[in-house]
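Render this sequence as a predicted structure.
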Amino acid sequence: MADRAQQQLALHFPGFDETLLWRRKSNDGFTTVPRALPIAMQAIDATSKGAPAGHSLFCLWSRAPDNPLVIVEAPATFAAEAGFSGERAVDTWRKRMRTLRELNFVSTKKGPSGEFHFILLLNPNIAVERMRLAGQVQDGLYGRFVDRLADIGASGDWPAHQEATKAAAEAKAQAEEAAAAAKKSATPAKGGKK
């Protein structure tokens, strides 16, 4: 894909000033962002009408240090980057964070700066699939999402998640059975000697 893009660049924009182009390998200030994120943002915004949270998610991803954990030491900075200003900026941002958490795009832990000090960015491809199962994503948008996943080679995220969830449930059930059996064998029978 990168080779094809370079060929198209040379064909359509020959001799373009390289200093005007942003390149990950030569420019500073980059992170890795899921390619289906714009569609995930649309799904979020369609669900949270009147209080769109998609841009707030993008701001979190742009702050991620190529690692899924974002530490929020100054909520006002995150609120401003998400486009909120005024006295209620941080409160508005926190409401958007709650929406993102409810939709399974982030997991959060309290810390020194409050409820959203530690934010774990979750796979947006899985979150959109969960939204679809809950009836929160319209057919047209979901169709574009599925097509995009196929384009970028990410169609396997959901099946992999389902397999991992199934394996974890089976392991938990086996552990519970083993614990119950151990407890039963350790309990003396009625009327038996202690």
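Summary. DSSP finds eight helices and three strands in the chain. The two ends are 73 Å apart (CA to CA).
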